[in-house]
Specification:
This protein is an alpha+beta fold. It folds into 2 domains: about 100 residues, no CATH class; about 35 residues. The protein is built from 2 helices and 8 strands, in the order αββββββββα. It has a 5-stranded antiparallel β-sheet, with no helix packed on it. The protein has a 3-stranded antiparallel β-sheet with strand order 3-2-8, with no helix packed on it. The protein is elongated.
Length: about 180
């Protein structure tokens, strides 16, 4: 497939390599239209929503994975990790909303123009292990015994089924 892809580029007739790149000669940025606000510190990027949100303008639900052209801007840093601001426009009404990265919690935060959709949390509050990571390799012995007993019962049922099948086959061969 790669051999079918066009690799040639247009070089103006009055351009020569001593003048620098073709982009510099034409006076255009290599990122083209995405860099139109670069002098303000804003780069246009493709952003995918990490969670569902409700638009503040039209109150429509924008689902997880929806892609937008967003204005990305560095607004600060958490230690040495940059904090980014993504400014997006709703597809339905044109209302602007803003999402910031949160490196401290490894998450995104909706700052303005929209609100995050409230999702029910999965928790084990009955046994007091809400939000804890459970190591499944260290499950109690009683659970292991139950699973072993279940496996033995299933094996026994399979053996009995196979025995009945063999009896039927022998009956068919005799007749």
């Amino acid at each position: 497939m790669a051999e079918r892809r066009a690799t040639n580029k247009y070089y103006p007739p009055d351009w020569d390599p001593s003048q620098g790149s073709v982009n510099a000669y034409i006076g255009q940025h290599p990122l083209r239209d995405r860099a139109r606000k670069l002098n303000e510190g804003i780069l246009i990027v493709r952003f995918e929503l990490p969670f569902s949100i409700w638009c503040g303008g039209c109150n429509s639900l924008l689902s997880t994975g929806l892609r937008f052209n967003a204005e990305k801007k560095k607004i600060g840093s958490y230690y040495t990790t940059p904090v980014w601001s993504f400014r997006l426009k709703c597809r339905e009404c044109g209302h602007w909303f803003e999402i910031h990265t949160n490196p401290k919690d490894s998450a995104y935060e909706v700052v303005s123009g929209a609100r995050k959709r409230a999702m029910p949390e999965m928790s084990n509050e009955d046994d007091g292990t809400a939000g804890e990571i459970v190591d499944l390799s260290r499950v109690e012995d009683s659970d292991n015994k139950n699973s072993l007993l279940h496996k033995l019962e299933a094996l026994d049922a399979r053996k009995q089924r196979d025995k009945r099948t063999m009896e039927r086959l022998s009956m068919l061969q005799v007749s």
